[in-house]
Amino acid sequence: MIVPYQAGLSNHWWISLRQILLHMCVTALAIGIAFSLPVGARYILYQWWPIVAEDANLLMATEVVLAAVLVLLFNMAGIAWENRSKVRMTDLASLVHVRQSDSWLARWRERRLVKPLPAVRDAFVLTITGFDTFADEKSLLGEALNNAYEIRVMLLNPYGGGAGKRVNSLPEQITRQNFISEVESSIAHLTMLRTLGKKVSLKFYEHEPFWKIVVLGDHVWVQHCHSGCEVKREPEYVFALNRKHPRRGFFIPFYMHFLEQWGDHRHPEYDFDTSQLIYRDVYGKEIQRADFGGDGETGNVVSQPPQTGTASSFAASRSGAQEMPASR
Fold this sequence. Notes:
By secondary structure, the protein is an alpha+beta fold. Among the domains are: 46-91; 96-271, Endonuclease, Chain A, CATH 3.30.870. Helix content is 51%, strand content 18%. The chain contains nine helices and eleven strands. The chain has helices at residues 9-54, 56-93, 104-114, 131-135, 142-147, 161-169, 176-195, 251-263, 309-327, and strands at 95-99, 122-126, 150-156, 199-205, 211-216, 219-224, 236-240, 269-271, 276-280, 286-291, 301-303. A hairpin with a 4-residue loop joins strand 8 (269-271) and strand 9. Helix 1 packs antiparallel against helix 2 (56-93). Mean pLDDT is 82; it is low at 1-10, 295-299 and 306-328.
């Protein structure tokens, strides 16, 4: 479910106070300009202009300065008019932040975005190895994720074919063993969170990654996993839920994309107690377990419960349907 963004009473109080102060400053500035206009006009007409009219150099300097100010004002007005459409599109997409590089300034801006966010109950993560999100000390979302109660994580299986394709597309210094080490670090971090009483669930997917998605409350962090490029080098986009118009923006599409991937029965669940992958059928019933790890494969099947009830009848009906063409 979507966890509503609930700002605290102090946050609402600060927003209201800031709006009141802003209106007071604008009102005071307008009053000051209104009262200073007569005084300024008298000064220009009776003191400044007689001096300028008698000095050609001062007159030329005044004209140049006035022309420069007018050009600057008109350019600013043109830029503001052109940016209105960009602001409208950004608001329609619910885009609240973009990080192009990994510089200290970009990280500082994103830290300012993350810091005022309230603690969330649920956190959803769809990524490759999870190292930059969980285990890395420089992670901007690490603290927010650690404060969440329920954490659902989907990682790329480092022993699967999708990981092999991903590794082959990256520079030579990045190997499958790097993927395995980073995934193990993420699993160790998630295990530590479980010991702290957090509800942590982990699944693995096999296909080549396409999106990195992190959902925290009403915000979603998105990065595209370009083939041949490390995801941490890619631009990062942050979308927020538009509470007045939930159908607008990209928060809901990316949120639903994670839920669809999470609900896909083809993605096995990781058992933290036994270090095994649990495979389930379309009804959510466990059908087999496999060791996590091996030489390029997921591992050996260690158990396969017998099919009973609805699952067995469904499998029998499918096998019968597949045998019908052969009987012809």
